[in-house]
Design goal:
Subcellular location: Cell membrane
CATH class: Mainly Alpha
Keywords: Cell membrane, Membrane, Transmembrane, Transmembrane helix, Transport
Distance between the termini: 46 Å
Number of helices: 17
CATH superfamily: MetI-like
Shape: flat
Number of strands: 0
Strand content: under 5%
Largest sheet: none
Mean pLDDT: 84
CATH topology: MetI-like fold
Low-confidence stretches: none
Family: Belongs to the binding-protein-dependent transport system permease family.
Structural class: mainly alpha
Membrane topology: Multi-pass membrane protein
InterPro entries: MetI-like, MetI-like_sf
CATH architecture: Orthogonal Bundle
Number of domains: 1
């Protein structure tokens, strides 16, 4: 755009503003102020979310002397990767990562399968005590799992079905320390956040027109075939969202993992023990009488935390498009 065109545009703008008695200028000023406020709000929220992560990344590359140097704030003076090597050693990182990936993936798949079927049933079918059972689903969302931890411990420590095990073997079965109790709970829709997934999937199916199912019935599809070929493909957005939520929450869970999977090394459990292992390393390996300092312990814990969430960041980078699309599509239909 040359100078003459800019002048014509400038004169045209003020002429239109004069004809509207200053409304055009006021409107542009309001839009500008709105954009500035929106920019600072978004910048502030992004800073609050990302600043702790950037801080942990900076600390993870600092040597121990940098932690107590008042001149070192964000950029390490003595750059080192030894913290990552120590954290990987204390957490048995690669073998633990493999176990965590296997458990999180299988649990997430199992939870989404059973929650999708349960959610569809609540949305489309009438059965005895339907409102009561859905109230139980809501209670599973509201009540913290810590309140039933003692009952869960005793149930799986002395596991028996209708007294069959005690009758045939003379004693109950101890399922603690294995993955089987958690698989049983997930298969029964009592795993981590299963009530929330059922509620979300139910709300999604309720907003799908029933005419789609009726048309499928007219074409000769039964209930199961209609669910698999018609309703399930349409529910891909909400299923994708719930699967990612389930995978991430299971990845970072420590309550159920510590209760049921004590003999299986998982990242969330190993991260809790990294401070104790660092102290033992300093005392028994490096022969330091006082053990690890508080600052250095926090540094190794921050490094271990980054190593735990790093696979989740990679997952988000690859799945962000489908995840955002699934959330937006779910929001429109809900």
């Amino acid at each position: 755009m040359n100078k003459e065109q800019m002048q014509k545009k400038y004169i045209s703008y003020w002429e239109r503003n004069k004809k509207t008695s200053g409304y055009l200028l006021k409107k542009d000023i309001k839009n500008l102020i709105y954009r500035i406020i929106r920019f600072f709000l978004l910048f502030g929220m992004c800073f609050l979310i990302l600043q702790p992560i950037f801080n942990k990344i900076s600390i993870s590359f600092m040597a121990e002397e940098d932690l107590y140097n008042a001149m070192v704030i964000s950029v390490p003076e003595h750059f080192t990767s030894a913290n990552y090597l120590l954290a990987a050693q204390f957490m048995s990182y690669f073998s633990t990562l493999r176990n965590t990936l296997l458990v999180s993936l299988t649990i997430a798949v199992l939870q989404i399968i059973v929650c999708t079927v349960a959610g569809y049933g609540f949305a489309r079918f009438e059965f005895p005590f339907k409102k009561f059972w859905f109230a139980c689903v809501m209670l599973a969302i509201i009540i913290p799992p810590q309140t039933i931890s003692s009952s869960l411990h005793l149930h799986f420590r002395y596991f028996d079905i209708l007294g069959i095990a005690n009758l045939t073997m003379g004693h109950t079965i101890n399922l603690r320390g294995s993955v089987l109790p958690y698989y049983l709970m997930s298969a029964g829709c009592m795993g981590l956040k299963n009530g929330l997934y059922i509620y979300m999937i139910r709300q999604f199916f309720r907003n799908i027109p029933k005419e789609m199912e009726e048309a499928a019935y007219v074409d000769g599809c039964g209930t199961f075939k209609t669910f698999i070929r018609i309703m399930l493909p349409d529910a891909k957005p909400i299923v994708t969202s719930c699967f990612l939520f389930s995978f991430v929450w299971q990845w970072t869970d420590s309550f159920y993992s510590k209760m049921f999977l004590g003999n299986v090394q998982l990242l969330s459990i190993q991260l809790q023990q990294i401070g104790e292992k660092l102290s033992n390393y300093m005392i028994y390996t490096l022969n330091q009488a006082t053990g690890a300092s508080v600052g250095y312990t926090e540094c190794i814990i921050s490094t271990g935390t980054l190593m735990v969430i790093f696979p989740l960041l990679i997952l988000y980078l690859f799945a962000q498009k489908g995840f955002v699309e699934s959330l937006s599509s779910t929001g429109i239909k809900m």
